[in-house]
Each structure stands twice: as C-alpha cells, then as structure tokens.
Amino acid sequence: MDKSKMTEMFFGPNHPGVPGNYGINYFYEGDTVVSAEPNPGHLHRGFEKLMEEREWIKNTPLVCRICVMEPDINEMVYAMGFEAIGKIDIPKRATYIRSIILELARIQAHIFSIGGNCGAIGLYTAMQWGVLTRDYILDLFEEITGGRVYHIYIRPGGVRHDIEDVTLQKILDLLNDLENNRMPEFQKLIFENPIAQKRWKNTAILNQEDALSLGVTGPALRATGLVHDVRKLIPYAAYEQVDFKVPSGQDGDAWTRLKLKKDEIFQSINIIRQLINNIPDGPVSLNLGNALKYKIPNGEAYVKIESSRGEYGYYIVSDGGLKPYRVHVRGTSTPLGLYGVESLLPGCRIEDVPIWAHSLGICPPEFDR
Amino acid sequence: MSKDKSSIFSPAVSFKNLFKKPETIKVPEENKKTAKRYRGFHINDLDKCIGCGTCSEICDNKAIEMVELENVKTELGQRNERPKIDYGRCCWCGLCVDICTTGSLQFTQDYTYINHDAESFSYIPDNKNINKVESEIGYERDQYSELLDLYRVEMQELNAESRVKSFMEIVKGFSKKQAEKEASRCVECDICTEACPASMNIPEYIRGIYDENLEESLQQIYEDNPLPEVCGRICTHNCESICSIGHRGEAVSIRWLKRYAVDNVDLAEYNKILGTEKIHQVDKKVAIIGAGPAGLSAAHYLKLMGYQITIFEAESKAGGMMRYGIPEYRLPYEKLDKDINYIKNLGVEFKFNTRIGENISLSDIKKDYDAVFAATGLHNGRSTRIPGTENNNVYQAIYLLKQITKGKKIPLTKKIVIIGGGNVAMDIARSLARLQKKKYGQVNVLVTSLETEDIMPADQEEIEEARAEGVDFEPGRGPKEIIVSENGSISQVCTNCCVSVFDEDMNFNPTFDDQDIQNYDCDMVVEAIGQAGDNSYIDDNYDIEYEGPRIKVNDKQQTSLSWLFAGGDIVRGPDVINGIKTGHNAAQGIDYFLKNNQKSS
C-alpha cells in the first residue's frame, strides 16, 4: 500500500454523515477508500462498570442511555435478565404493554433511521419529516411514561404504569395516520424517488457470508435473504400471541435494507393493533419489595431481543447481592461498527461512507459502553 | 431485477405542505401542553416531608443532597433536612418520587426552566414549582410504580381462644424467611435511631438480618442495649411509631426483628461474637442497687469497662419489673434469663434477697464501694383512696403480678373490676382472665379507666388483645366508691362519668359528671393507677436534691452526691428502654467519675 498517493480523512465525530459520536479514520486514493479503521471512544461512559456499582433498581435509568434512539430495548433486556435470574413471572398485561412499547420504539427508530439515511444522501426534506413523525410518537411516550426520549418505563417486575384506554386509542389513531397519510407520503418522497433509488441501489452491499462471519443481525442480515428475528425464534414479551411476518430481501444493499425497514413499520403497526385489541386486564407490575433492597439469587442469564437494528442482548451475572456482579451489553452494531469498518469499507467511494454507516445501523454507545 | 416504482414527479408530494398548516409550534407565542404524567421539575411539600433522605439514597446520579433548613418542623420523627436537587446531575428518572416515604415529593409539568444564574439550578423544591408560577402536578407515583414494601409480614400469634387458657407466649416470632422479608422493608433512613431512647443502631441490625449475618446484628444491638430479648418483646417501640415507612404504609416491625436476631443466636456464642471472652479488669468496685433494666444495663457496660460489680437485689431473682411486673405470656422467663445470664457470665456478682434500707444500709455500701448506682424502681402501687379501698378484697395490681410470678396462690373471684387504663392494668386484667378461665371456665373482668379509649395510656394492641380474650372495658368512668355489702364483701363499684382528664394546660385534673352514675357488680377490685418509688433508704445522713418527686440527676445520671448515681424508673420512664438508657448513661458517668474522681459534666 503506497501511502504517498493516499490522503487520510478523519470522518466524524462531528460529521452529519456519521450516526452519533463516532469516527472513522480512512485513507483514500482518488475518491475510493483504501483502508479504514474505526475511531470509537468519544462516548465512553463506562456503563457496564457503572452498573456493578449500583443497586439493581438504580440501573434502570442508566441502561436506557446505551441507545438514545431506541432506549426501551435496554430497559427490556435488563428487566428480562433480572427476571430470568430471579425466576419472576410478570403479569400478562405487562407483557402486552412491553410489546406495545417496544414496537412503538421500533417504528420511531425506523422512521428516524429512514430520515437519517435520507439526510446522508442530501434528501433533507425527508429527514425533517422523519424527525417530525417521530415526535408524534414521542408525544405518546410522554403520555404513557412521563419521558419523551428516556422513558424508564419497563422495569423489573413489569412496567411502571398502566396504559389507559384513552391512550391506547390515541396509539391506534396515530397508527392509522401513519399508515394512511404519512407512510404513503414517505413512499412517494423517498421510495419512489428515482434519485434516491439510484443512490441506494447496489451501494454498501453486505453479502450473507460476510454478515454471518461478522455476526451481523437485523435488517442488514435479513436483506441478504436470511430470515432471522428473535421475536420469532425465541418469543419474548407477548410476541407469541401475535401474528406477523418478517420481511426479507435478497440484494443486501442499502436500498433493500431501507425497504425492509419500511415494511417492518407496517408489520409493527399490525402487531400493535393486535396487541391493543387483545390486551388482557389486570395488574401491570409486581411489587418486588423495597427497591433499595432488591436481591436476586446467584445466577447468570443471557437474554436477547430483536431491536430495530438486530439482535440485542445482555449477559447478566448476579452473585446474590444488592448489585449486579457483571452486566455485559451485546450491542447490535458492535460487529459492524468495530470490525465491519475495517473489512467492508475499503473499495467504497467517499460519498458512500455515510450511506454505509447509516444504512447498516451503527449506534456508537452500544460499543462505547 | 428490481421492479420498484419510480417517477421524477413522486417527490412533488412535498409541495402540498405549502398549503397546509405548519405542524411545528411557534414558541414562545404558542406552547406545547405537557402530558399529565410528564416528569418536569420537583416540588416538595415541606410540611409533609420528614427529611428521611430516601430520595437522596435512591438517586442514581447523586443529584439529591439533604440540606438543613431552619423554618421546617422538627418534631420527633422529623429531621430539619430537605432534599436539594442539582439539575446539573438530575436525569429526571423519578425514582425519588416513586420511593418517597411520605409522598411529599412530586413533579410539576414544566418543560423548561431558564435562568442566567447557574447556582439557581441547584434548587430546594418547596410547595411552588421552580419557575415560581402556578403549575399543575405532573408525574406522580401510583400503585404500580411504588418502590416501597408498604405492608408488614404478618406475625403468627396464638388466637384469643387458646391463649387465654394459659400463660404461653402469644407471639410466635418470625421464621428466617419472614424476618428477611420484613428486614428488606427498611430504607435505613435512621429516623428510628433518633426516636429510640437508647439510640440503638436500628438500621444496622436490621441490615444484619437482611444480610443473613446475625452476628453483626447482635453486635450492633449490644452497642446500646444489653437486654434485647426483653426489648424484642415488650419494648414500647417508639421507633415503630415514627418509622418513615409508616407514613404511607405499616411501620417496619423493628421490635420483632430484634427479637428474631437474638432468639436465633445461642447464648454460648455470645462471648465470642461480642468479643467479651476476656475483659481487662480495673481495681475499682461499683455497687448497683436493683437488678432491673437500669441496674442490669449499668452492670453490663461497667463490667465491660472492667469494674468489679455487685448488684443488690431485694427479690430472689434478677429482672425487677421485667420479671415481677410483666406477665409470662408477653415475656417468658427463659428469655429474660438468657439476657441476665449473659450479664452474669461476664462476672457480675448478684446479692439476692438483700433489700437496701432493711438488710443493708446505704452507708454500709458506700463504705465498701467506690461508686453506687441506685435503680430501685417503682414498686409500690398507688391507691385511688376512694371509700371502700380498705376492704380486704381490694388489691394492688403490682402486688398481684408479683405473686403470680412467684407462683404463689393469689385471691381470685368470679367478677373482678380493674381500675386503671395503662399497660399494668392490661397486664393484670389479662393475667386474671387467664386464671379465671382456668378456675371457673369463663372470664369476667371489667376494666374501668378515667380516659376514654382514644386516650387510654395502654397500647392499642394490648386493649384489642385483652378484649379478644374476653376482658370488658368501660372507659371514661371515674371510680367513686366501692360498695361493700353488710357481710363485708364487695358488691359493686360505683363510678361517675369522667368529662375530661386533663385541664387546658394539659395537667392531670379530671372533672366528673355526678348525674351519670354507673354501678358495676363485682366481688374483687384491683387498682392499677400507677406506681410510686420508695427512696427512704437514702436516709437523713445524705442531703440529696430532688426535682419535683424525682431525684435530681445530671445527663450522666449523677445525683447531687458525686458518688451516687440514679437511674431507671425513679428518674425517667417508667419503661424498660429508658431504664436501659439511664443505666448506660450512668455507666459512662461512673467511669468518668472514677477516673477523674470528680463531678462529671
């Protein structure tokens, strides 16, 4: 590799084409990337170590910060891990509410991601629309949980509050609006836009072999033709009670991944409707006693769920004390953000790097933990 | 391969927004309404807040600091501290609101707070919101977000029917699982320690139980209380009355937890656990008069300091009122003996059947000892002195209780009236009920008291338990006369209605309504209206100062005679825990006196 012909580029962490506080240092020749290495660490807050120092309950406001866009997945896996080790069965209504929250979170994450991808190719109108649409979902979160971004709602034992029927109706209304008005507009503005299609098709291709060897999951893997979804494989919360499809594609390029996200939004709408129609009555939480003294037996659990970007897991170890002995976060984007950058970026064009980073769903706090 | 629809006109869909109303909000002309549950900024009802600091404890960002305020109430069970929130650290998770023991802390619906002064972001929430304008309450705790365990683990007890048949202990005590569950309810706010007359390390010993470390519990308990088996059963438990969990739920069963901790450690292990296998000896002698709670407590702490201790006791066994006043169904003798035996094993010498002033004089003791601690207690019953009390079938509760303990036969009839509304009245009423049940197969005991039931000095649970055992109550009646029939036997107690017990200055000054007369049939009357001490052993040789009826002592229980210390019921109380505290105080005072041979400050 003749470095004299190459230029080094520091891409991020303040570049709008980068998803979050994360950088990629790469060398390019002409406008082709020759080598690249990830530059994480701008966001490192020591989540995993911090968790060992805090009582179980005190981690619930912390874990959600591991993913800003979709905080609920962290709350969910943390609670699931706690419940798995403590052998706690939560009330049925709570499982439904958890699923509703997770699907709402998925929708808003997908919409934001589609918006972000549009931003990465300069389609700013669509980006603004994405932000706007997400905000209506945040309004619902505010009403249900009391927080717009960090909900701190799913906690060990169930969920923090019940959802009232009026709010459930509001969710249904929003889903109708999304399905009938906003998504068709997105369809026209983004997915039927010949420029966008040209830009995304055959760009940032990830083939199935690479995806599997790296450990990539979620839409990025499904876009290569492999149907893999934790909601189907090991159903958690109330996913066993609903009927839905897992969309998949063949080409493995940015376009396929985005189309999958769009299709998944419709599936999520479908899931939430089924959940709301069949939601059982009853309590939404167990009283696990004095929160400062939560204690679960010795044990360990690896729990995982399907986030908007793929498989998301926590490995939790309890030594029977008041605090977790160890919590390890298996972030969805770890394989791509750390290893994929090095192996997949070389050969792509500079202007495709943002598409690459956005469409594969890199979320820096998941590996800066 | 791809058949995706595409048209260069499709994106033109965005143009229709030109004709639509904007979806954004024009701040500040227009403001978005927050959701009802929004976690805005804190407000705190300063009068409701007790300063327990649980919010600060659970805060995962260390954003809450407890600061002292001058203008807040500081009654017993309240601290003058209130939460101060640093919004530079706060993450608005609301755990503080969920766990607030009183429910005083809440959120408002404010979205924003703007100020050029950075200091103002560290804020002590009060009844107004941070913007000092009217704002609706936002996030509140509900039944599902509750983070406290509000309800007690139920204590297993004998039912009324079976317990009235014998003097068997009523309360069965916690199992390990129950105790740990109950111990987990404590938030360790330490407010109880401030209310405990002996300032026991309550959160610490409860934590020991929770951590399955009873040795730690025992060590913490013995720091301030050498009679835990006793206090674990019959303590007046001021701690539970002010327990912070009690504001929204049921107080932690602190007394039963202490009982659990000591019940489950073998006496043989005590010396090892408490580090008292070998005590450094000091060549000074201290005499203690009275082997009640104060005397035993002083003996214990003085012994640990190495002094040579002798306790002079008028009765044949140690324990004082704990043995001779409190019935066995509340405090089994074997449990009392466990506490006493530990103190005995430390090397404390007991001289039983030695009544001061009769068998030995105070001067004799003073000759042989370097310091004296007097804890002689209140052993003489008071009389109502109404007509008829001179009758043979009128007894003092204290006398009867003592006879029962000694296993002596006591007078018993079919219909008994007790005069008095305190715990001693309950003790004798319930004891007599048991004896009646055994002898006659039925209970016929009536308790009359000046006080109406809401202000009766007896514990509410005692009243309820007595009632369940068949004891009848006629509260709010003043005894007027004991009517004696011609053959000399008692036929009735005549009472009038007690209109008020205390006058405006809250002094004892009962007023009666003589129009409202009630007579109660009975053939025996027991008076339980209070006890008095007998300090006549401090004879004329000694010029000792009094404060009202009680001996004057300083904060280390030292009397006006520098070598004489006094404690227990004769100076404070009457109850066990105050006795223990005064005994502990006296031990420190005597130690200071003997080391410096001067009046302790």
Description:
- The complex is a heterodimer of chains A (369) and B (601).
- Chain A is of the alpha+beta class.
- Chain A contains 13 helices and eight strands.
- Chain A has one domain: Orthogonal Bundle (Cytochrome-c3 Hydrogenase, chain B).
- In chain A, the strands form three sheets. In chain A, strands 1-2-3 form a three-stranded antiparallel β-sheet. Chain A has a three-stranded antiparallel β-sheet with strand order 6-7-8.
- Chain B is α/β, with parallel strands linked by helices.
- Chain B has 19 helices and 22 strands.
- In chain B, helix 17 (423-440) links the parallel strand 12 and strand 13.
- At the A-B interface, helix 2, helix 5, strand 5 and helix 6 of A face helix 1 and helix 2 of B.
In a few lines, what is going on in this structure?
The complex is a heterodimer of chains A (369) and B (601). Chain A is built from 13 helices and eight strands.
Keywords:
heterodimer, A: 369 residues, Cytochrome-c3 Hydrogenase, chain B, three-stranded antiparallel sheet, 13 helices, B: alpha/beta, FAD/NAD(P)-binding domain, 4 domains, 28% helix
Domain module count of chain B: 4
Strand order of the largest sheet of chain A: 1-2-3
- Give me the CATH architecture of the largest domain in chain B, please: 3-Layer(bba) Sandwich
- Give the CATH H-level superfamily of chain A: Cytochrome-c3 Hydrogenase, chain B
Helical residues, percent of chain A? 40-55%
Low-pLDDT windows of residues of chain A: none
CATH architecture term of chain A: Orthogonal Bundle
Largest sheet of chain A: 3 strands, antiparallel
Helical content of chain B stands at 25-40%
- What's the CATH class label of chain A? Mainly Alpha
Topology:
The complex is a heterodimer of chains A (369) and B (601).
Chain A (H helix, E strand, L loop, with lengths): L6 E5 L11 E7 L2 E8 L7 H6 L7 H4 L8 H15 L5 H29 L3 H22 L8 E2 L2 E2 L5 H27 L2 H7 L7 H7 L4 H4 L7 H4 L20 H25 L19 E10 L2 E10 L4 E7 L3 H11 L8 H7 L10
Antiparallel strand pairs in A: 1-2, 2-3, 4-5, 6-7, 7-8
Helix pairs in contact in A: 4-5, 4-11, 4-13, 5-6, 6-11
Chain B lengths: L41 E3 L9 H5 L5 E5 L12 E6 L8 H5 L5 E3 L14 E2 L36 H4 L12 H8 L7 H5 L6 H9 L3 H11 L3 H7 L3 H5 L11 H10 L3 H8 L10 E5 L3 H12 L3 E5 L8 H4 L8 H13 L3 E3 L10 H7 L2 E4 L5 E2 L12 E3 H10 L9 E4 L3 H18 L4 E5 L10 H9 L3 E4 L1 E8 L5 E13 L5 E14 L2 E4 L3 E2 L13 E2 L2 E2 L12 E3 L9 H21 L5
Parallel strand pairs in B: 6-7, 6-9, 7-8, 9-22, 11-18, 12-13, 12-18, 13-14
Antiparallel strand pairs in B: 1-4, 2-3, 3-5, 10-19, 15-16, 16-17, 20-21
